[in-house]
Amino acid sequence: MRPLETLPPTETLEIENGLSLVPRVKLNLTIHPSLPSVSKPIDEWQLKRALIDFLKTSLSVSVTVPEEDLQIKRLKDLKKRKRDEPVAHGALFIRDIRFLSSKKKIEEVDNEEEDVKELEKKFLEWRSYVAEKMDGIELNLEGVKYNLSVEIPASDDFGRMRKDWEESYAFRNRGYSRGGRQEPDTIVLRGVPSRWFAEPRVSSKPSMLVTHTIFSTFGKIRNLNVSEDEDLAKGMDEDELDIGIVSGLHCKIIVQFEKYRDFYNALKVLCGRSLQKQGSRLSADYEVTWDKDGFFRNSRSQNQEKSSKMQEPAAVRYRSEASRREPHVSEFTSNDTRRKRFKE
C-alpha cells in the first residue's frame, strides 16, 4: 500500500478484508419555506429533480447525481412544526469526482508530494464552491417557494477538526514541561455495517480481531474498542432511521494509535470518503471524528478504581469502617468523662 501522506483526496484506498475507502463529496441540506406559514407538504420528487437539474446546469463542470445519492426526508407533521423549523432535511453525495484528478503523470518522486497538495487544494476549493453555489438558492415547487441551506458536515471537514484539536490541546499543554507535549491519538468511527467487521461464517457481530487487522493498515494500534452503535439511532424517528441508519446493524469503532502521525494520517484519509465492500453495492457513509472525551483514559481510570477496591485487604476495609463509626463513640466517651471530672 502506498504511503498515506501521498494519497490524493480523489483516489480510492484499498484496505484489508475486501474493504475500500472511496472518495466523495457530502453536503448537508436543509430546506425552509420562504413563507413560514406554509401548510402544504413539500414534494420530495420535485425537490430532487430541481436539485439534480441545478447540479447539471448551474456549475462550472456539469455534475450528474443519481437519485439515490440525494437523500431527502420531509417533516412528517407540518401542524407540529414551529415557524423557524425546516420542512425537510437531507444529504447530497457526489461520488464521481474523477474530473478533479490531475491529468499529468507523476514521474519523479520529488514532485509527488507537491502534486498531492495541488490536488488537495483543488478538491477543497471545488467542494467549497459547490456548497457556496447551492447555499441560499430559491426553489419554486408547485408555486411554493423554498430556501435551501447547504453546509459541509463537520465529520468531513478535516481542516476544522484539526483546528479544534490544536486549540483544545494548546489549552491542555499550558504549564506542561515535565510530562511533554500532549497530542490526540484516538479516532471515533460511527455508522459502519457490523457484518463488514465480523468473522465470516462465525457471527454477524463485529470482531475485535478483524477490526484490529483492518485498522492496522493505518499504523500500530495501542487500544481498540468495538461495540454496536445503539446511540446513533437514539432520538431518531422512523423517517430518519431510513437514511442508512438501522439500530443494531451498525457499529462504533474507537481506535487509539501509538503515534500521532498515524492518528493524523488515518483521520485525514477517512475524512471525505465512504466505505465499500467488495461484492456489495452498498456504500457506508460513516461519521468520523477525533476523541474529545478521552475514552480510553477514562476507561483506564475507572478500571483502576475498581481494581484497587477489589484488592484492598479485608483488615484495611474493617479499619476503614471502624474509623467511620469511631468519631461518634469517642466523642460521647470523652465528653462523658470530662463531665464526671467536672462534677467531682
UniProtKB/TrEMBL annotation:
The UniProt regions of compositional bias labelled Basic and acidic residues, in chain numbering, are 318-329
Record-linked InterPro entries? AK17A/B
Top-level lineage group: Eukaryota
Region annotation Disordered: where it falls in the sequence: 298-344
Q: Which Pfam families match?
A: RBD_AKAP-17A (PF25015)
PANTHER family per UniProt: A-KINASE ANCHOR PROTEIN 17A, B-LYMPHOCYTE ANTIGEN-RELATED
This one is known as A-kinase anchor protein 17A isoform X1
Organism lineage string: Eukaryota, Viridiplantae, Streptophyta, Embryophyta, Tracheophyta
